[in-house]
Design goal:
Oligomer: heterodimer
Number of helices of chain B: 8
Helix content of chain B: 25-40%
Number of strands of chain A: 10
Strand order of the largest sheet of chain B: 3-2-1-4-5-7-6
Radius of gyration of chain B: 16 Å
Largest sheet of chain A: 8 strands, mixed
Mean pLDDT of chain A: 96
Number of strands of chain B: 7
CATH topology of chain B: Rossmann fold
Number of domains of chain A: 2
Low-confidence stretches of chain A: none
CATH topology of the largest domain in chain A: Rossmann fold
Strand order of the largest sheet of chain A: 1-2-6-3-7-8-9-10
Largest interface: A-B, 21 and 20 residues
CATH class of the largest domain in chain A: Alpha Beta
Helix content of chain A: 25-40%
CATH superfamily of the largest domain in chain A: Alpha/Beta hydrolase fold, catalytic domain
Strand content of chain B: 15-25%
Chain lengths: ~375, ~200
């Protein structure tokens, strides 16, 4: 247990919950009869309400971005290396908000929630949602918090897709956006990976068509394997090689199927710890959110046209070793914005850690965000 | 902020409220000045990360691109001016890039060190070694300047590439102008500045 936390940590934090009574009409045509959003905030909203930053989380992220819930927590929030007093995203200057998106399993309305219409948990009957639906709920949260315009909306990966959607759906409600390691739509290969993950979960004999809550026999193996597969795609070949190489756990080959190589041990550990914190129905749903995102589809694939309402200033960041959302995918977003003369900057950060780079404290990456945020702080009148 | 003389010469050639693409924009000083004083909009293109950070810090839109890969991300005629200061000589395929500049912009502006400046000529003719100067400070083995040329060389390439030269100026290494330079630019001009477009 820690006795003290470092001075640049936001410290002990508590999640908040906002309830919305309205019926939410989803992109799929289904309705949600009221919903909750769990969120965390750090820093203070200034009198002009001009210093708010929205953080959009990615596939397996949640509202707990920075700080600790208890001193016993092993790890801080998922982006603690970037958010805190005097950190890159400085909580002394900005008011930072991060909600858990609906369909997730960390407290916002999702498969684990009780359906008010039936009195039973939604489970697999939770309607499929989209990035558009998420952004709509985030805008409702912004209203709830009294934030008309975000100074910045920041998101990596699936979070970057939410940034794009904000800029299209609510162009006047954000001044800047950092679209990090993102894509304007998933590649065929990405959908293929997601489909394998789904099939592995759905064919687990404990999956029971998603009704695994009654007998409390979760599809542990399926979810674990899906996460193992996903995890490989989030890292680069070089990063795995550098970290584990061909190291053997017990120093010798044993001619069996138990863990032999360190990478096997690592992946199993990653898979198992994921099962403890994530719900399989949520995971299935979230992979669908990724697959469905394709704003340009409304306009015959013309991304420039779809993004033409955007007025935000874009900072687009990609990572050299990211093969899941490669730099060329970020460049597609950049090109679409250039075509309609939008305010946009683009940089490809040299990194080894693959798609996961967006979560790492890579000095150049942080320096770029810091430069942008310093200027933005000046614009919104913060010293 | 005072602009370098080549920058202020270029600034004079650029009309207010226009769109500019600055290739090899460095720390973005030229664009930042144009944005502030002449209401110019546009982008810088840069490969060096330290410079990119400086551009972002000063509010200049910057796109990280290797100029040797061309300007394919930019559509035809999307800019009023495409500028490239002190970069042409470090490009792999300058003749392709010049054509690209005139494709993307209505007009283009380049500056480059003049290899036929008298000091260069003396160093080669009498010293018998590769020229070094304040504009060309590198040794032959570590210079990024792989395609040096003179004003005459540049002008004959333009003729060959169907590029029309609209305006020419020369300055010295301190970016000052002298009378002699105007009379014998290829001999006395240290840095050449050209404004050009594709022949209609």
């Amino acid at each position: 247990m820690k006795n003290t936390l470092p001075p640049d940590n936001v410290g002990l934090v508590k999640p908040n919950k906002a309830h919305f009574d309205e019926t939410l009409v989803l992109a799929s045509g289904s309705n949600l009869n009221g919903f909750d959003l769990v969120y965390e905030t750090y820093g203070k909203l200034n009198a002009e309400h001009s210093n708010a930053i929205l953080i959009c989380h990615a596939l397996s992220g949640d509202h707990h971005v920075a700080g600790y819930h208890t001193l016993e927590d092993k790890k801080p929030g998922w982006w603690d290396n970037a958010i805190g007093p005097n950190k890159i995203i400085d909580t002394n200057k900005f008011f930072i908000v991060c909600p858990n998106n609906i369909g997730g399993c960390s407290g916002s309305t999702g498969p684990l929630t009780i359906n008010p219409d039936t009195g039973k948990i939604y489970g697999p009957n939770f309607p499929l949602v989209t990035v558009e639906d998420w952004v709509k709920t985030q805008a409702m949260l912004a209203d709830h918090l009294g934030i008309d315009v975000w100074a910045v909306i920041i998101g990596g990966s699936l979070g970057g897709m939410q940034c794009m959607e904000w800029s299209i759906a609510y162009p006047n409600r954000l001044k800047h956006t950092f679209v990090i390691a993102a894509a304007a739509k998933l590649s065929t290969q990405n959908i293929a990976f997601n489909e394998v993950a789904r099939q592995v979960i759905r064919s687990d004999r404990d999956f029971n068509e998603g009704h695994y809550y009654k007998n409390d026999n979760k599809p542990i193996h399926g979810l674990m394997q899906a996460r193992m597969l996903g995890h490989i795609t989030y890292l680069s070949d070089d990063a795995l090689d550098e970290k584990f190489g061909r190291q053997l756990r017990d120093g010798e080959i044993k001619f069996g199927y138990d863990v032999e190589f360190q990478i096997e041990s690592y992946l199993r550990h990653q898979g198992r710890s994921f099962v403890d914190r994530f719900d399989a129905n949520s995971y299935l749903l979230l992979t669908k959110v990724l697959d469905y995102f394709d704003p340009a589809a409304k306009s015959n694939g013309d991304l420039a046209k779809v993004m033409s309402p955007a007025t935000a200033e874009f900072l687009i960041i990609s990572f050299s070793s990211d093969w899941r959302f490669s730099p060329s995918r970020s460049k597609e977003i950049m090109s679409a914005l250039l075509e309609t003369n939008k305010q946009v900057s683009y940089i490809e950060i040299q990194s080894k850690q693959g798609h996961d780079s967006f979560l790492k404290a890579i000095p150049r990456y942080h320096e770029v965000m810091e430069a942008a945020l310093n200027r933005i702080a000046g614009e919104v009148g913060i010293q | 902020m005072t602009l370098r003389t080549d920058h202020s010469l270029i600034a004079k050639w650029i009309k207010d409220n226009t769109r500019v693409l600055d290739l090899g924009c460095g720390d973005g000083a030229l664009l930042a000045g144009l944005q502030k004083k002449q209401n110019v909009t546009g982008y810088g293109v840069e490969i060096d990360e330290d410079n990119i950070v400086k551009c972002i810090q000063s509010g200049v839109n910057v796109i990280q691109t290797d100029l040797d890969a061309g300007l394919s991300q930019f559509e035809n005629n999307t800019f009023d001016y495409v500028i490239m200061t002190q970069t042409l000589q470090a490009i792999y395929y300058p003749e392709k890039l010049l054509t690209e500049m005139t494709r993307v912009g209505h007009e283009a502006i380049v500056t480059f060190p003049n290899m036929a400046h008298w000091k260069c000529r003396i160093q080669m003719a009498l010293g018998g070694h590769m020229p070094k100067s304040k504009t060309l400070p590198y040794e032959w083995y570590n210079t990024p300047n792989i395609h040096l040329c003179s004003l005459d060389d540049f002008e004959s390439l333009c003729a060959k590439k169907n590029i029309e030269i609209l305006e020419r100026a020369t300055v010295d290494h301190a970016h000052q102008i002298s009378l002699g330079m105007n009379i014998f630019p290829n001999l006395l001009g240290e840095i050449a500045i050209y404004r050009f477009c594709s022949k209609k």
